[in-house]
Design goal:
The complex is a heterodimer of chains A (about 500) and B (about 325).
Chain A (H helix, E strand, L loop, with lengths): L12 E12 L2 E12 L3 E5 L6 H8 L7 E6 L2 E3 L4 H6 L2 E4 L11 H5 L6 E2 L2 E2 L1 H15 L14 H14 L4 E5 L7 H16 L3 E5 L3 H7 L2 E6 L2 E7 L5 H9 L19 E10 L2 E9 L3 E6 L5 H9 L5 E6 L2 E2 L5 H6 L2 E4 L3 H5 L6 H6 L14 H14 L15 H12 L6 E5 L7 H16 L3 E5 L3 H7 L2 E6 L2 E7 L5 H9 L8
Helix pairs in contact in A: 5-6, 13-14, 14-15
Chain B lengths: L1 H12 L2 H14 L6 H26 L7 H19 L1 H24 L5 H20 L4 E2 L8 H4 L1 E2 L2 E2 H19 L1 H11 L1 H6 L4 H27 L1 E2 L7 H11 L11 H20 L5 H25 L1
Antiparallel strand pairs in B: 1-4, 2-3
Classes of the chains: A alpha/beta (about 500), B mainly alpha (about 325).
Chain lengths: ~500, ~325
């Protein structure tokens, strides 16, 4: 409780954790956590994946029960056995994956399960009236009759928040709320968080984006290996101090040095007038050993460009790899020519979650291990072990890949990429939902592959990441290249201007 | 981490425990049960179900489902019987197999390339195939009394065991190896576990699914020929319950109805478990009425245990 010295004196405790401990099957995930969350504050929880942030928030939200210690809400000891009981005490969670019914309207979703009805018949008018009241009380402007599936993600999150408020939530836990959002939408969500706090709602924010935590939070708690490192006022922290606390060491430099790019490096990928759903005439060249960044907003067409090059979507225009044209859009053909895509969403598009780590590593090149269709298990085992060693994933590779942390799952996809000699590696949002330590490891993998002579395309919504890794940046807007940035023109400001502004597009 | 591993192992052998318990109870409770004649009879009767269920496991693992196997089994039976009567045994066998394979291939193409949900596609196919069978037979029972040599297909003893059992063993082992040790098997697990991930890994998802459906149809065709040879008669209405017995066996064996998980040896244990219940009820003289009720309860338990362990795993 030494951290209390840092907290403002005149706060009213909303939630008090005293000596909270939790184990799963013999593994201790939380050790004696003492934490006070002040009413009406925005309280950040930061730490690497596996540090215990999620476990801690799930105990507060009633999803898990603590093995030891006390949980006090408004000074009263509580023992939640389910999220429903926690909600009754005013605690709600907005999870990473939204739990909305896309075909229903905003108002219907907000009051789902508590619709005004008599004898099973719904009262449409009462529903609209209650929604209007709620929206006025909270100041959220969102049309009640809009169908949720048509809204952008940030607005869908608003619906979730409204739902929590409609049920009388006074403490809202947000788990990585901006991970899937563009910068614009993230800014909107930040407004929402601020207005929630201003109206007296307590917000617990879990986020990997440290700048966001510092901007939004009043207080930050750092967790490492299930222990509380410290709780401090956000104003007293910097990104560096947070990272140091999370890692227990200083991170010298986030990005590894860019490998030198020889001026006569051959072109490994040439794209001319590429058109596909969401892509409107994109042309560029990628050289061996070059890291090319694709920046821009979510929905700008970056992922669509990657998918079209990889043959995962219908396309027109020319794609050639090492001088040879890929005529059809076909994934097997793209793979055979040496193109590999690490997709945007590793759980939906990358991994077969219930299968083993080993099988997930070898999936894209199983034929190489199976002459005549017969899988040589010995060779597979050795090859997987070697690749997993290279990407630094430890442990038994017969475990289901679902058991790994986000960072390690991403490394498994890189191991798959490295299973064969490739020419072009496309990494779409390679560090989304990945902890700080693994992030650095993934950056090193990417630069190491470039140093070996692969052409790398890195797609990221994090402008800093693109700028830190790439030799050259293409900013994508509306399915087109809106700017090409080199050398000293590669600044965050230029990226943002090109990503947002209307056709500034002199292509440098 | 070790808990995840041990849980997987436990899940995959879970079906063995009730099977062995039931086997022991029957062995103790009924003298004739352990008689080799009784055990071989069970295998003989179950040979068609086992083959079809083994192939059906491939379909389920790959993320599909085949509700047309019963109808296909019947069609293959009547076609092979008619051809055998008209042209001889070899055309009969070829015709029956061809019919099954074609139906399976159509199922595969319709449910993948034409994007019709496999449940509906194969249900519709089962009506179509049943109708065709009725046309072929004119609604009559086809009796092969004038072709007693047709019985040789399934009933020839070899090393003291009938050919029906030998054929079943070969089919089950080949399919088991296909699923467990080949690229096709691996691709089926990937296609059923996460079709998009499989596609982006360069796997032709539709291709492996069509193959699984085709094998399922072919197995139903072979099963139809075998059973026609065992009883020397065929009719269009045969196999109405078979589809569900096959599915029950696969699911009781622990293969997930959601795809991506399962194994053929477990399906074999599941089918035999259900068969043992039937056999046991007969031997112990329990009213056969309770047999179906018991089967229903066991099926619910099998699926329930699967679902509950999934919840607990989180």
């Amino acid at each position: 409780m030494s951290a209390d010295g840092n907290l403002p004196g005149s706060v009213e405790a909303h939630v008090d954790l005293r000596g909270i401990g939790k184990s799963f099957g013999g593994t201790r995930v939380l050790h004696g956590i003492d934490l006070t969350i002040a009413r009406g504050s925005v309280h950040g929880l930061v730490g690497e994946n596996g540090a215990g942030k999620s476990s801690l928030s799930k105990i507060i939200a009633g999803l898990y029960t603590a093995d030891e210690g006390e949980l006090l809400v408004d000074g009263r000891p509580m023992s939640f056995r389910s999220p429903r009981e926690a909600l009754a005490a005013g605690i709600a969670t907005i999870a990473q994956e939204l739990a909305l019914v896309p075909s229903l309207t905003v108002a219907q979703n907000v009051f789902l399960g508590s619709e005004p009805a008599s004898a099973g018949f719904l009262h449409g008018r009462a529903l609209r009236r209650r929604y209007a009241e709620l929206s006025e009380r909270t100041g959220f402007e969102l049309p009640g009759d809009a169908v949720v599936g048509t809204l952008r993600t940030a607005d869908q999150q608003k619906v979730e928040i409204l739902r929590a408020l409609a049920r009388g939530a006074s403490l809202i836990i947000m788990d990585e709320p901006t991970a899937a959002l563009s910068r614009q939408d993230a800014a909107r969500l930040h407004e929402i968080v601020r207005s929630l706090a201003a109206s007296g709602v307590t917000v617990v924010l879990i986020s990997h984006f440290l700048s966001e935590v510092l901007q939004l939070c009043d207080t930050v708690t750092i967790l490492r290996d299930g222990r509380l490192v410290r709780t401090a006022r956000a104003a007293a922290e910097t990104e560096a101090s947070l990272i140091e606390g999370m890692l227990g060491r200083t991170l010298t430099s986030v990005f590894p040095p860019k490998p030198p790019l020889p001026p006569d490096a051959p072109v490994v990928l040439e794209v001319r007038e590429l058109r596909a759903p969401g892509v409107d005439g994109v042309s560029f060249r990628l050289h061996a050993g070059e890291i090319l960044g694709l920046a821009g907003l979510v929905g700008a067409g970056r992922t669509e460009i990657a998918q079209a090059i990889f043959g995962a979507a219908r396309r027109s225009g020319q794609v050639s790899v090492a001088g040879r044209a890929l005529r059809r859009a076909s994934i097997p053909q793209a793979l055979a020519s040496g193109v590999f895509l690490v997709p945007e969403s590793r759980k939906e598009q990358g991994l077969v979650l219930q299968r083993s780590v080993r099988e997930n590593v070898t999936l894209a090149n199983l034929r190489g291990l199976a002459p005549g269709g017969w899988v040589r298990t010995g060779r597979e085992r050795r090859e997987a072990a070697q690749l997993l060693g290279e990407v630094t994933v430890q442990g038994d590779d017969r475990r289901p890949v679902a058991a790994l942390s986000g960072g390690n799952q991403q490394k498994v996809l890189f191991a798959r990429a490295m299973q064969r000699a490739r020419r072009v590696l496309i990494a779409d949002e390679p560090t989304r939902g990945v902890d700080v330590g693994s992030r650095r490891a993934i950056y090193e993998l990417l630069t190491a592959q470039a140093a070996k002579g692969l052409g790398i395309i890195v797609i990221s919504s994090d402008a800093e990441e693109v700028l830190g890794l790439a030799h050259r940046v293409l900013v994508i807007r509306g399915g087109r290249v809106s700017a090409e940035l080199h050398d000293d023109r590669m600044t965050e400001e230029n990226v943002l201007v090109a990503a947002f502004a209307e056709a500034l597009g002199e292509e440098a | 981490m070790t808990t995840a591993l041990s849980r997987i192992r436990w899940r995959s052998i879970a079906i063995l425990i009730p099977f062995l318990v039931l086997f022991a109870v029957l062995a103790i409770g009924s003298r004739p049960f352990l008689n080799p004649v009784n055990l071989l009879n069970i295998l003989d009767q179950q040979s068609a179900t086992l083959m079809i269920a083994a192939a059906g496991t491939l379909v389920l693992v790959g993320g599909g489902i085949d509700l047309s196997v019963g109808a296909t089994y019947a069609l293959s039976g009547v076609v092979s019987a008619q051809l055998a009567i008209a042209f001889g045994i070899v055309p009969g066998i070829i015709g029956g197999l061809a019919v099954g394979t074609i139906v399976g291939a159509i199922n595969g193409v319709v449910s993948t390339l034409l994007r019709i949900n496999a449940l509906i596609a194969t249900l519709a196919m089962s009506f179509i195939v049943s109708g065709v069978s009725s046309v072929v037979t004119g609604g009559n029972l086809i009796v092969l009394t004038n072709r007693p040599d047709f019985a040789a297909i399934a009933q020839t003893p070899f090393l003291g065991v009938r050919t029906s059992i030998w054929v079943m063993l070969v089919v089950v082992v080949v399919l088991g190896v296909l699923l467990a040790r080949t690229t096709v098997g691996r691709y089926l697990y990937a296609a059923g576990g996460n079709a998009e991930a499989a596609r982006l890994a360069g796997i032709r998802v539709a291709g492996v699914r069509i193959l699984a459906f085709t094998l399922s149809g072919a197995a139903a065709g072979l099963g139809g020929i075998m059973d026609t040879s065992r009883v020397l008669s065929a009719q269009a209405s045969a196999g109405t319950a078979l589809t569900f017995t096959v599915l029950a066996g696969i699911v009781v064996g622990g293969t997930s109805i959601l795809g991506g998980e399962g194994a053929i040896w477990r399906t074999v244990v599941g089918v035999l478990f259900i068969a043992l219940i039937g056999n046991g009820f007969n031997l112990l003289g329990v009213n056969a009425l309770f047999q179906q009720i018991t089967l229903g309860v066991i099926l619910l338990l099998a699926v329930g245990i699967d679902a509950w362990t999934r919840v607990l795993r989180r």
